[in-house]
Amino acid sequence: MAYNKLQTMRDNIEAIRLALRLGVAGRTAQNAEEREILRKYAGFGGLKCILNDANELADAVKWSKSDIELFAPTVELRRLIHDYSHDDREFKDYMDSLKASVLTAFYTDNRIVDAISDALKYSGVEVKSFLEPSAGQGAFIDSFLRNDRYPGAEVLAYEKDLLTGKILSALHPSILTRIEGFEKIESDFNGYFDVAASNVPFGDFRVPDPIYDRRKEIAYRQSTKSIHNYFFLKALDQVREGGLVAFITSQGVMNAGKPFIRMELVKRADLVAALRLPNNTFSDNAGTDAGSDLIILQKHTGKKALSADEEFFIQSVVDRGTKVPGNKFFQAFPQNVISDDAKIGTDQYGKPAIVYTHTGGVNGIAEDLRKALDESLRLRLNLELYNSNGIKPPTLNPVKPTPTLKPEVKPTPEVKPESPKQKPLAEKIEQRNEPLLKQYQEMKKKHPDAILMFRVGDFYEIFGKDAIEASEILGITLTRRMNGLDNRIELAGFPHHALDTYLPKLVRAGKRVAICEQLEDPKLKKTPRQKVVETVTPNPPPKPEPRLESKPEPKPVEAPKVETKEIETDGRPDYSDNPDPRLFAYNLFGELEPVQQKNNRRQQMQKPEEKPKPANPATKAKPIKSSGFRKLTDKELEFYGSLNWDDNPPINGFYEAMMSIAHCQMEEMRLEKKSQEAAQAAGIAPGETYIEKTEGDFIPGGRARQPKVTAIPIERDMSPRPFSEDIQFFHKNGSMVVADGMVGFLSDVRKTGATFTPLGLKHEQEKRAMLYITMSETYQQLYNYEAETHEPSEHLREHLNQYYDEFVAKYGNLNEKQNVKFIMMDANGRDALALERGENGQFVKADIFDHPVSFSLDEVTSVDTPLEALTASLNKYGEVNLEYMSSLVDMDEDAMVENLGGHIYYNPLVSNYEIKDRFIAGNVVAKAEAVKAWIDKEEERIKGFPGYDGIEPFIAMSQDSLKALEEARPRRIEFDELDFNFGERWIPTGIYSAYMSHLYETEIKIAYSSSMDEYSADAPHKNMKIWEEFCVKGYYRVYDGMSLLKHALHNTIPDIKKSIGKDEDGHDIKVPDNEAIQLANAKIDEIRNGFSEWLEAQSPEFKERLVDLYNNKFNCFVRPLYDGSHQTFPDLNMKILGDRYGISSIYQSQKDCIWMLKQNGGGICDHEVGTGKTLIMCIAAHEMKRLGLAYKPMIIGLKANVAEIAMTYQSAYPNARILFADEKSFKADKRVDFFNNIKNNDYDCVIMSHDQFGKIPQSPEMQQQILQAELDTVEENLEVVKQQGHDVSRGMLKGLIKRKENLTAKIATIQYQMEQNKDAVVDFKQMGIDHIFVDESHQFKNLMFNTRHDRVAGLGNSEGSQRALNLLYAIRTIQERTGKDLGATFLSGTTISNSLTELYLLFKYLRPNELERQEIRCFDAWAAIFAKKTTDFEFNVTNHIVAKERFRYFIKVPELAAFYNEITDYRTAKDVGVDRPEKNEILHNIPPTPAQEAFIEKLMKFAESGDATILGRAPLSETEEKAKMLIATDYARKMALDMRMIDPEYGDDPNNKASHCARMIAEYYRKYDAQRGTQFVFSDLSTYKPGEWNVYSEIKRKLIEDYGIPAHEIRFIQECKTERSRKAVIQAMNDGDVRVLFGSTSMLGTGVNAQRRCVAIHHCDTPWRPSDLTQRDGRGIRAGNEIAKLYADNKVDVIIYAVEKSLDSYKFNLLHSKATFIDQLKSGALGARTIDEGAMDEKNGMNFSEYMAILSGNTDLLEKAKLEKRIAALESERKAHNKGISDSKFRYQTITHDIANNEAAIERMKADAARYEAVVKRDKEGNPINNLTIDTCNLTDEKNMGIHLQGLGQRTDTHGQYQRIGEVYGFPISIISERTLVDGREGVQNRFVVEGNYKYKFNNGFIAMSDTHAACMNFVNALEKIPGIIAQYEERTAKLKADVPQLEAIISKQWGKEDELKKLKSDLAALDRKITADLAPKHDEKDGEEVKQSDAQRVEVRDNQSQTDDSKESMVAEPQYHYQSAPATIRPAYRPTGL
Length: 2035
Hints:
Elements: H1 5-25, H2 32-39, H3 71-84, H4 88-101, H5 110-122, E1 129-132, H6 139-145, E2 154-158, H7 162-171, E3 176-178, E4 193-199, H8 210-214, H9 218-223, H10 227-238, E5 239-250, H11 252-255, H12 260-268, E6 269-277, H13 283-286, E7 292-299, H14 308-314, E8 316-318, E9 325-327, H15 328-332, E10 341-346, E11 352-357, H16 361-380, H17 383-387, H18 425-432, H19 435-446, E12 450-456, E13 459-463, H20 464-474, E14 479-482, E15 488-495, H21 499-508, E16 512-518, E17 530-537, E18 584-586, E19 592-594, E20 624-625, H22 634-641, H23 653-681, E21 690-695, E22 708-713, E23 721-722, E24 736-739, E25 742-747, E26 755-758, H24 763-789, H25 794-811, H26 817-823, H27 829-833, E27 836-839, E28 842-845, H28 866-877, H29 882-888, H30 893-899, E29 904-907, E30 912-915, H31 916-919, E31 922-923, H32 924-942, H33 952-967, H34 989-1000, E32 1005-1009, E33 1014-1018, H35 1024-1029, E34 1032-1033, E35 1038-1039, H36 1041-1050, E36 1057-1062, E37 1068-1072, H37 1074-1096, H38 1100-1113, E38 1117-1118, H39 1134-1141, H40 1148-1160, E39 1163-1167, H41 1173-1186, ...
Parallel strand pairs: 1-2, 1-4, 2-3, 4-5, 12-16, 17-20, 39-45, 39-48, 40-42, 40-43, 41-42, 43-45, 44-47, 49-54, 49-61, 50-52, 50-53, 51-52, 53-54
Antiparallel strand pairs: 5-7, 6-7, 8-9, 10-11, 12-13, 13-15, 14-15, 16-17, 18-19, 21-22, 23-26, 24-25, 25-26, 27-28, 29-30, 31-38, 32-33, 34-35, 36-37, 46-47, 47-55, 56-57, 57-58, 58-59, 59-60
Helix pairs in contact: 1-2, 1-3, 1-7, 3-4, 5-6, 5-16, 10-12, 22-23, 24-25, 28-29, 32-33, 34-37, 36-37, 37-65, 40-41, 41-42, 45-46, 54-56, 54-64, 57-58, 64-65, 65-68, 65-69, 66-67
C-alpha cells in the first residue's frame, strides 16, 4: 500500500484530537476503538509541509501544488492544538516540538518490529526490563510485550515530542513514560535493563549531555554531535552486562568515515547482528526511502579481543569509482543485505549511495529479515552471557609454568562461583591485565621456555622476565608500565627493522626466541591479535656424560656478560655484535657493512647426516637457525682447538661440542684471511664490499679440502623504487625513512604509495640515521595519537625516551652542530629538533617526554571559588554550565548563582544563564523589551493561580536581569544634541506631513514605501505657497512646491534644462539651467533647514517621544569590555610558536578579540599592522571548531601572505587537519578535485588566497536571490524615476536602465547554468563552509549598491567588483544557513580606508538583519540618517554656475561609532603594547624650479580657460571637458614630482624633488652606515619600467653618481617578478645587503616584512587615502626594527616631500585630518557629533578655486577664492530671489485686476438678472413662459418659429457680425456667423445670443436642430443661467481675494542673507588689503638658513626657499645633515596657510 499523505495526515489529526480529549478527561484509551485510532498515528516525518505557514487563507499561495491538498488539514491541526492549549506559550511549545520531530519521526511498520521481537524470543531471550528510548506511539513496546509474552516486565519509554508523548501515555498506561529527551535519563538506570530496542532518530543534531562532553574518549565527545551515535552509546550504558541493544538506525552509523563510534561500540559490546534494510522499508508507513540498518549489540565490557566480524564492522570503505560509502562487514557478508535489487543513486542528502529495494514489499522484507536475523543470532548471540546477567564462573587456577616441566591441568567437573575474596591471586591479576598482556600470558603458556617478542605497530615488545633477560643481553632500556590498577610489569622493545641486529644476539646467548607477528592492521585496533609465526632456536646444549677418568677436567670458561651499552667501531671488526667475520666487511668509507641480506643468515654448520629435511612452509613454521655461538676467547680457541679425534679426542659430549665450535671458528678465520688475500689479488681495494663464494665441505676434525675462493665485488642497488612500507600520516616529500634495510628519502608521496630513493651512507652514518628515524617516527606517532584521542600513551612515550637517550648517548644532543645539518635533511627534521629546548646553556628534553602536550592531561576537577569555576566552564564549553561548575566547587547551583551575582545573568529568552559580556551586550533596548514581554506574559499566565507554578523563581531572576539591562543603556541623547535630517526613514511620515502642512499652510499628506525606498506627497488643496513661493519655473516645465518637496525628502536636486537654440535637425539644444537649479536648491534647502526649526518649536511631550524613538532605535548598542584572559586554548602549541616565531605568550588584546569573536560568532578585528592579527585568526578559527561554533572555517588572505598564514596555523596546531590551497591545487585540471576535497572532508580549516576564493563557484540559488533583489531595487528606482518624469537627470535614468540590463543578463546566465550544470560542480554552499575569516578585508570594499545620488562625488562605483560580489554571495549563504548576522570575521588595520561611506558596505556584508531593523534597506536610507550632502555652486571656466555635490558631513557620529564598535575590536599598536618605533614625520618643503614656476602659470591659465593647447596637448574632447579639473589635478601632481613626467624634453634640475630626495637618502645612508641602516622610497607615479625614464631610476642614478652609493645596494621592488626573488630582496634588506628599496603602495605597501634595519621612509608623492599612507609607514614602523630601537632613539623618520605651489602639502594635511577622525570614530573618542571629510578625491580632483589658490603659492588667495565663491553664490541666490519676487508682483497685479473686473461684471450681470425677473412670466410650476418674437417670421406658434430658427442657423451668413433677429422679454436676440474648416472644406456655423449688459448663451449658442420646442426655448434658458454665472464669478473672486494676503506676504518678504553677504564682502575687502601688503617687496629675506621649529610639535616642515620668518606653526624639527660633495642651501622656514 503506497504512502497516502492526506490519509496519514487525517489519521494523525484524529489521534491527536483523541489524545488531547483524553488528557482533558483525565483518562487513557479504554476500548479497542480508541486504541486503534491512537495506533494509526504515524508521526509527521513524511509530512514536512506542516513547517509551512498556515495561519490564514492567504498563506495557501506559498504552498506547492503537491502539498496544497494538505493545507486545509494543516490549518485544522493548528486550530486543534491551539484550542486545547492553555495559552500561547503552550501552543508554541506544542508546535515547536512537532516541527522539531519532522526531521526524525519516521515510524516503523509493525511487521518489521515483529520480525525483530519474534527472532529474539525464538532465540531464548527473556525480557524482564525493557527500554524504549525513542518510543513514538509505542510500536516496539506493543511488539515485544504482545500476548503477554513477558509477564511482569518493566518498561521505561522516552518520547521527546509532546503530542506523541500524550498518545504514548494514553496507549500504554501501565508503563513508565517520560515525555522528554533520552539524554535526561538518570544515572541510577545505568546497567539496569535487559533489552533496549527502538528505531532511533538520526541526523547531525547535537545532544546536550555534559557528562559525555567531558569524557576523555573521543567517541563519547563525538557522539553528542550526532543523535544516532549518541543513542547507541547511551543505551549501552543503560543495559546490564550481557544485555542487548537492538536499534534500527540510519546507514550513517556503519558508513561513517570516522571509526571512533564503532570502535567504542565493539570495545564495550559484542556484535550480534548487522543487517542492511532496503530503502523501501519505510515507504508505506512514513513516506521516505531512506536507507537504514538494524544493529544488535550484546554488552560485554570484559571482552579481551575483537572478532573478525567486529574488525570488519569497524572499517568503512568508499568505492573509488562511484564514491559510494559502505562498510566492510557487508562486503564480507552480502547475505546480510536484505534486498533483491540494488543500483547506484543518491541518498536523501543528494550524496552518492547504493539504493537497495525489495520487490516483496514490507511483508517480503519482514520475512527475509527474520531469516537473516535467526542466522545471526544463532551464530553470535551469547545466551550464557545473557542469562548469567554478565556473571561468569571463575576460571581454573592457572599453573605457573617452569622452564623444564610442561604444566598439566586436570579438569574440574564443576566449580562453584567464589566470592571475590576467595579468587586466586593469579586470576585477579589476570582480570586486571590489559588485553595485550592477556595475550602475552596466553602465549607464554604455550612457549614457557622462549623469549616472546610481540610485534606492536612498528615495534617489537618484550614483557616481564623476558624483558629483564633481553635487556641484559641486548643492552636496551628496561622500563616498567602499569598493568591494571595496582600492578606493574617490566617492558623492553626495539623497532621492527632492528630485528636482524638483535635476534642473533639472543640466539648466541643461548635463548630460544618466539616471534609473534600481528595479524591485523595496527591502525585499526588498539590490541591486535598475535600469533607465533617463527621461532629461533640455538644449538642444543650437550648432555652431560659421566667422567671416564679421575683426573680433574678443566672447567669450562664462562662467556663474559655482554655490556648493555654499544660502542662505536674504530674500523676493526666488531665481534661483540657479530661473531661471524664473513657477515661484515669494510666498505669504501672504511666502515663495516653487512655482506649478506637479512634473509641469507648463515646457517649453523652441521654434520651431513644430521641435516634435517626442509619443512613445508605451508604447513610448518620455518625455523630460523642461529648464525653461531658466542665468540670464543683466545685461550678457549687454544685449548679446544688442540683437541682432535686422532691424538687428543674430547672426553665427553661437551668437549666434543666445544672442539667443533673451536675448529669451526679457526677455519673461518683462516678462510677470512685467505679471502682477503684473494681479494687483493683480484684488485679489490681494502675495505671494498664483496661477496665470497666457497666450494667444498668442511668436516670438523677431518682433513679439510682446500676450497676454491672467488672474491666478487658487489654494489648495493641505489636506484629509486616503490616504497614497500605503508604510508603514514607524517610521511611527506623529503621524509627520511628506512626500507629494505637502507636509509633513503621519499618523493611523490601519495595516499597509496611513494617513491623510495636510497642514500649511500657509511655504516656509522646509517646506524645514526636509523636510530634517528626510529625516534622521529615514534615522536610523530605519540603526538598524533594523543592529539587525536586525548588519551596519554605511556607505551609510546617510554619508547621515545629510550630512543632519545640512546641517540644522545651515542651521537650527542639533537641540536648540536654535527646533528642539526643531518637532521634538517629530513622533511620532519624541524619537528625533531623541537624535542629539545635550551635552558641555562644546556639542552633539555621537551615536555612531551614527560607528559602529553597536545591536550590538558590534568583536567580541572576542582577549584576554590565560583569565579574560577565560571572561568573553567567558559574555557571548556564557551558558556555557563552550572552542572559542570557545581562539580568543581562544593556548592549547589543556587549558591553558585548567588555567589556569581553581577557576573552571570539569567536570560529567559534562551532559558539559561549568560555571562555579563554576552547578556549585557548588543542591542540592550530590544533585549530589555523582549525580557519584559516574557515577564509580563508569565505573570499574566499565573495570575490567579492558587498554587506554586514553578516559574516564580525564574521571573524573579529575569526581573533582576531586566534591571541590569536597563541600567546598562547608553546615556540618553537629548533633543538638543540631535541633528535631524529631513527625510530620515525612521521618523514617522506623520511628522513630515505636519511640518509641511505648517510650512505650506495647507494639508499635506506624505507616505513612504519601504520596498521602493520612495516618498510620495499629495496636497488635496494647493495654494499660492505651492504655486508661487516654493515654485521654480523652468524652460520646459514648472517645478511647484510638491515637486520640490519630494526632492527635499530624497535629498536630491531637479535636473532643470533650457534650450539655447536648435540643432541641424531642428531639435532643441538642451543644457542645464544652472540658475534655475540653484534657485531650486535654495528652496529645497529652505524646506530641509526649516524642519529642525519647526521641531524646536514643538511641545516638550512631542520632543520627548521623538527622542525616545531615536534612542531606542540607534542609541541602544552596548559593547562590553570583552575579557578573554580566562581562555587557555587547549590545543595551542606554544613551544613550536616560540621556536619558529619567538612568540612566548598570547597578547591580552589577542585573547580579548578571540573571546569577542567566539561570543558574537564573528565580527571585525580592526588591529593595527603588526599587532598579531594572523594568530588571532588562526586561534579563533580553531576555537570555533573546537567548541562547535563552526563546523568548517575558512581563511582567505592575500596571495603574498597566505602561505605564512598556513604555516602559522600549522605551527600553532601541529595536529590540525588543514587544507592549504597552493598554486597547483587551483590549476584548471585540479580545481574540481580540490573543491570536492573540501566538500567531502572534515577539515579543521581551509586556507586559500583572495584570488583562489574568487574562483570558487558560488551557489547559483544564492546568486540568483541576491541579484534578483538588486534587480528589484533597480526596477523600483526606475519606476520612481519614471514617475518623477523630468525631475530627474537623464544620466540617472540611463544608468538605471543599463544596470537593469546588466543584472537581467547575469540572472539569465545563472538560470541557464543552473539548468545545464545540475550536480556538475561543487559550489560554495555544498562545501559546508560556515565561517570565513577575511584577512586584509579592505580588499573587498568595492561592493555594489543602489543609489539615486548619481552625481555625488566620492561614492565609488555602485556596480562594485566581482570579487566583492563573490564574498557577499558566500557570506549570505552562511547567514541564510545560520539565520543570523555576521558569519564572517573581517581582519584589517584599515577597515575604513578613505570615507565613512565605507561603513555602509561593512554593515551590508555583516549586519543585514540589523540594518533591516533600523529600516535601512539601501544606501540612500543609510545616508539619509548619517550623512549630509553638500551642494557647492561655483563659476566654471565659461563663467557659468555649476553644482558640485558630495557627502561631506557626517552626523550622529557617536551612534554610528557604537553600531560599528559593537562587533569590532579596535586596537592600535600602542594599545597592544607592541614594541615598535615611533613615527617622526618631517614635511620637507621644496621651492619650485624655474621650469615648474613657468608650468604653474600655464596650469592656472588652463584651469581658467580650458584651453589644453596651453599645456602643449590637443584640445580637450567633450568627455575630457567634463573631467577638466581632474586632468588639471593630475598635471599638478606630475609637475610636482618631476617636469620630465610632463615632457621628456625638460632636463634635470639640481633643485628638483629627485635631487632633494637623493640628498636626504644619502645623508641617512652615511649616518647609519655602520649599522647598515635601510630606507624605503615610495612613489605611485613614475614607477620603474625598464627602458623608460622614471623617477626611481633618476634618484638611483643620482645616488650612484653624486653620492657614491653602490648600485647593488639600491633595488626596485618591480624588478622582482617571482615570489622567490621578492623574498630574496626582502631578506637582503633585513640583512643590510640592500640599503634602499623603491616601490609603489600596491607592491611595497603590504606583505613586506623588511623592517629590521629601517631608519627612514621617503614619500616622493602623497597617496589619496589615509590607509595607503598607513600601509607605507608600516614597512618600517613595526615590531622587529632593531636598528631604529638601538641607534635611532626607537624612531623612524618619515619624510614627505612637498613642492610649494603644488598639491603636495594640501593632500598631506587632508590625509591627516581624515586619518584623525577615522581613528577617533573607531576608538569612540570623537567628541563632536558631526565631522567634515573635506572636498578632494582621486576621481574628481580639486575644485577650481582651491586649485587656483594653491597653485598661486599664497594660501591667502585660497581664502579669497572661497570668499569670492561664497559671495558669488549668494549674489546669484539673491538674484534668483528677486526674480521670484518680481514674478510674484506681476501675479499680484494680475489678480487684483481680475478681482476688479470680476466685481464690475457681477454688478452688470445682477442688473440684467433683475431686469429679466421683473418681466418674466411663469406657469404654475414656476417654469418661464416663452414670449419669443422673430423679426423675419410672422407666425407665432413654436413649431413654425422653431423651423424658421433652424433655417436661419443653416443658411444665414453675417460675415462675423452680430445681426438682430428678434427679442425675448425685451432682450434682443442676435445671430453671428463663424468660419469653419471640416475635412478640408470651408463652411459656416451660426451661434445665437441674448444681449443685455453681456451676451448670454445656452448650449454654447447652438440651437437644437431636431426639436423645435427646444430651439425656441434656447433664449429663455440663456437668461435663466444668469444667477448661476453670477455665483461662479463670486466664488472665483473670493478665491482670488484669499490669495492676495499670501502674495502680499511673498512680495514683502526680504532676502534673509543680506547681512551675511555684506559681511563676506567686508571680509573680502580686508583680505584684499592684506594680500596687497604681503605682496609688497621684502628686504629681510636671507638665503642659506633653515629655521628649526620647537620640539614639542609633531611634524617638521623643511623649506628650501626664501620665506618670511613669521611662518605659521610647524611640527617636530628635522635633524640637519651636511654632505660634503653637495652642500645644502639653507633658507628660512615658511609654511603655507592650511598646513
